[in-house]
Specification:
The strands form three sheets. The chain has a six-stranded mixed beta sheet, with no helix packed on it. Strands 1-4-7-10-13 form a five-stranded parallel beta sheet, covered by helices on one side. Helices cover about 15% and strands about 30% of the residues. The chain is of the alpha/beta class. The chain is built from two helices and 15 strands.
């Protein structure tokens, strides 16, 4: 685990405490700012993106003004991200959350949320 953390740190991932586990095949993109808090678990084949060029292509095509393609992602303490989930740029996952396998997450996920689906919807509360 220490080597995986060091590898991600060297690429620019910020750690606010020690994660519990990060699977080695998870793709963590720190280019727009990525902060992972303590006791987080990131499962196999998870993709965390902090940049998105697609909307810039559309804006350019429509003659619109370009905005930044980079938006930070934060994963709150004691949260779990299931296998194959995709976390999109600008997302904040609160503390004690469960992100189901294969979920596509965008925006703000409230503390204690259980999220599943594509697009992900809140299906439960980890306190119950």
């Amino acid at each position: 685990m220490t080597l995986i953390i060091l590898a991600h740190k060297s690429q620019g991932v910020a750690f606010a405490g020690r994660p519990e586990y990060i699977q080695q095949d998870a793709y963590l993109d720190p280019s727009g700012g990525l902060t992972i808090h303590k006791d987080v678990v990131i499962s196999t084949k998870v993709i965390v993106l902090t940049h998105d060029w697609s909307f810039l292509k559309r804006a350019k095509y429509l003659g619109g003004e370009a905005v930044s393609a980079f938006r930070p992602v934060v994963v709150g303490e004691n949260s779990f991200i299931g296998a194959g989930a995709i976390v999109l740029p600008g997302t904040t996952i609160g503390k004690n959350c469960i992100i189901g396998a294969g979920a596509v997450i965008k925006g703000t996920v409230e503390d204690y949320s259980i999220m599943a689906g594509n697009p992900a919807k809140r299906i439960g509360d980890t306190r119950q």
